[in-house]
Write a structure and sequence with these properties.
By secondary structure, the chain is an alpha/beta fold. It has a single domain, classed as Uracil-DNA Glycosylase, subunit E (3-Layer(aba) Sandwich), CATH 3.40.470. It is built from eight helices and six strands; from the N terminus they run H-H-E-H-E-H-H-E-E-H-E-H-E-H. The radius of gyration is 16 Å and the shape is globular.
């Protein structure tokens, strides 16, 4: 039996881990390429943001394919990474325009600790090969995570077509669902800039009597 990743907590009850994970794990182990992020960081998004604490879900695509950058959270990178990844740089531009917040580095773990689940739609990537594990089977995990998080009111930020196609896996409910263009330089000017997602999320949380996200954390 394939051992479950440590630290999953309540996520370990998802059917993915008994159904798809053994085969997917074997496929990764059999891949001769350097796989990113390192094994101990691959489930960091789930480990840092448990389902009962998830208030916001931001969907990414796959990890940064540059060694030393990805650490298991969508859009986030290790603190030393500079210049910032281009999509993250645009996210920070929008954050500053929206709330006047300027962030010191690429590390978004402070968001994760407040209930912001930063989930990629593929949790691994071969070094230097963007989307190289797109069809490996991670989508089954992502579908189940969306199903689980939507059991209670949650804010979903769906940037770009790939993320928006996954909306069908969100159960109907009293959710906030924000859909705009992706922050990539290729598309950010087609609706991402000026969308003010950070203030919209905090306004929604406030209307529910919850504390907002400190986007500067």
């Amino acid at each position: 039996m394939t051992r479950l990743p440590a630290g999953l907590g309540a996520w370990s009850s998802l059917p993915f881990f008994t159904g798809h994970w053994p085969g997917l794990s074997a496929a990764i182990a059999g891949d001769p390429r350097e796989i990113l992020p390192p094994a101990h960081l691959r489930f960091a998004a789930l480990e840092l943001t448990q389902p009962q604490h998830t208030r916001v879900v931001i969907l990414g695509q796959d990890p940064y394919p540059t060694p030393g950058h990805a650490h298991g959270l969508a859009f986030s990178a290790e603190p030393h990474v500079h210049p910032l990844p281009r999509s993250l740089s645009n996210i920070y531009k929008e954050l500053e325009d929206d709330l006047g917040v300027t962030r010191p580095n690429a590390d978004l773990r402070g968001w994760a600790s407040q209930g912001v689940l930063l989930l990629n739609t593929a949790l691994t990537v071969p070094a230097g090969e963007a989307n190289g594990h797109k069809h490996l089977g991670w989508q089954y995990l992502v579908h189940q995570v969306l199903d689980r998080t939507s059991e209670r009111p949650t804010a979903y930020i769906l940037w770009g077509n790939a993320a928006q196609k996954l909306e069908k896996h969100i159960k109907p409910g009293d959710h906030l669902i924000l859909k705009t263009a992706h922050p990539s330089p290729l598309s950010a000017r087609r609706g991402f800039f000026g969308s003010r997602p950070f203030s919209k999320v905090n306004n929604w949380l406030a209307a529910r009597g919850e504390s907002g996200i400190d986007w500067n954390a």
